[in-house]
Amino acid sequence: MYEGLITPENLFSPDLVDEEYIMWTHEQRYWEQLRDLTLPQKEQRRIGFPLSAQLVEREMRTAQGTIDGCGFAFKHGVAFNVAGGTHHAGSNWGEGFCLLNDQAIAANYLLNNKLASKILIIDLDVHQGNGTAEIFKNNPAVLTFSMHGANNFPFRKEKSDLDISLDNGIKGDDYLQLLKNTLPGLIAEHKPDFIFYLAGVDVLETDKLGKLALTKDDCIKRDRFVFETAVRHKIPIQVSMGGGYSPEIRDIVEAHCNTYRVADELYF
């Protein structure tokens, strides 16, 4: 808003997601333990946060925000959740600061309401979307694609429909070439009618956890290619922001803002 990229009219505040929608994705027992704050301590430690009513409410609003974003994406071509990207949450577990998998919940919402028939999830966070892969492992209507650090969390990976494991220190040119060699073929073969994009900026060379070597300009090129591909094929796209752990918060904020800038240039 400071630079005029967005206005108050571009923003929305989601309600709590319906419990029925949660249980289209997560097992009932796991959800009820979250809701009732009875999740065993061992499972809370796996999440990394102490469980609280406020945390569960935040996750419920995040999930509904991604569902709402899908509606705006159908209307405008693209929509963002300024949170989200909770891709480590599986059907019956939370992990890595993720309790509910927002894009998985939204994908099942679209499928069950017949708003989409074939979905592609593009996960470009530095960490594998293990929860997303597990949730959709037996669902041919959702194609999961993850490019992630081979030697990074989670150390026990799930199997996405397509995984590309990246060596430590990979540079932007090599990263972008892998993406360009892969994404168009996935779309041509599977013909998705909706895309979810997890645009993590923990791929930056400044990130203290990422182990890769992309610059901010490389991230702009990455986002541009994803958006241009979606525009070319006229596929609506919902974006969740994912991770970023650079010591200087300005690096994280600037990289996230660049994703919005690219989308604004291409769609509006």
Detail the topology: elements first, then pairings.
Layout: H1 19-23, H2 28-35, H3 41-47, H4 53-76, E1 78-81, H5 102-112, E2 119-123, H6 130-135, E3 142-149, E4 162-166, H7 172-190, E5 194-198, H8 216-232, E6 237-240, H9 249-267
Parallel strand pairs: 1-6, 2-3, 2-5, 3-4, 5-6
What does this structure look like?
The longest helix is centred in the N-terminal third of the chain and has 24 residues, at 53-76. Strand 5, helix 8 and strand 6 form a beta-alpha-beta unit. The chain has 268 residues and is of the alpha/beta class. The mean pLDDT is 96. The chain has helices spanning 19-23, 28-35, 41-47, 53-76, 102-112, 130-135, 172-190, 216-232, 249-267; strands at 78-81, 119-123, 142-149, 162-166, 194-198, 237-240. Strands 1-6-5-2-3-4 form a 6-stranded parallel beta sheet, with helices on both faces. The radius of gyration is 17 Å and the shape is globular.
